[in-house]
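=== RUN LOG ===
request id: a7f3
mode: sequence -> structure
chains: 1
length: 340
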Amino acid sequence: MSVTIKDVAAAAGTSVSTVSKVINGHYSISEETAERVRSVIRELNYYPSSSAQSFAKGSTKTVTILANLAPNTAFQNPHMFEIIAGLEESLGAKGYRLQLCGVDTANVYEVAEEIISRRGADALAIHISVMTHPLSGLLTKLRFPHIVIGVPNFESQVCWIDNNNVYSGTIAASYLLSQGYRRIAFIGGQYYDIGSSYRLQGVKQEIENAGLQLEDQYIWLGESTRADSFQMTMRLLDQKILPDAIICANNYIAMGCVDALCKRNMKIPQDIGVVAFDDYPFSRMIEPQLTVVDINVRDLGKQAGKLLIDMIKHSNMQVQTYVTTSYIVERQSTMQVNQK
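=== RESULT ===
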């Protein structure tokens, strides 16, 4: 197995970034440390990779995306491929390659530090599922071109891009109101599910703008699973006055909701309407097919790629932005109330 820059750092008792600085002749490293690193390099017969050597040239024409690629990720994060496809399309149009790197929250800092220190890529894209406080600090300190796909759930100065989930929530509520629904319920994830929380915020805003109110007994929050949603819907249906429509924060929640409605022998949409978010993966598999607020995640990836190209050219560029490409796809799970 070939020697890596991490092997050199371990043998020299330094960080990977220190080894990289020695290789590239940075004057911030003391001569004593530099000589120790050079000695280890000679002993281990280490040769910097071509991507590390490209540091002097200023560009690798590569962007690396850091994401969790553990088993079943495709089910837990079904939008990942579309985001990657959008990124690749946008970057490829400008002559950049997209490199996929599997990480988790335990090793993402180390992997990112190595890529940055050896200049293995011109920029990083980081999926929100692997974003951490330490990584935020590293990116902010080094001002390395990057974009986080999703909003971090902590205060930070990192660059990020995300769908506007508040706006998506307003679209869902506005559509139901336009169809004549008035007693609207919301089933979503726990408070730490940022996307669900923002969607709920948008639903509340739109209903209040219509002079109505989203009643507390119509708001049910739990884990974003089919099983939890089933139980929440069953309790919702125990209310004396039932809602005439339910907004589900995602497809998994919608599946449990539909299961519960069927268990209670309630017909969709004749007895109650159902709206969910995202047109993938289950909205067309559920019977009846769901009316959804579609979120164009491929476009999210394309926009992220364009921003990364700008950041590579302008290293001080700061971006924290939403894209708003959500729209209603009307199907059989809703109808105009006057048609009931």
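=== NOTES ===
The longest helix spans residues 297-313.
The chain has a mean pLDDT of 89.
=== END ===
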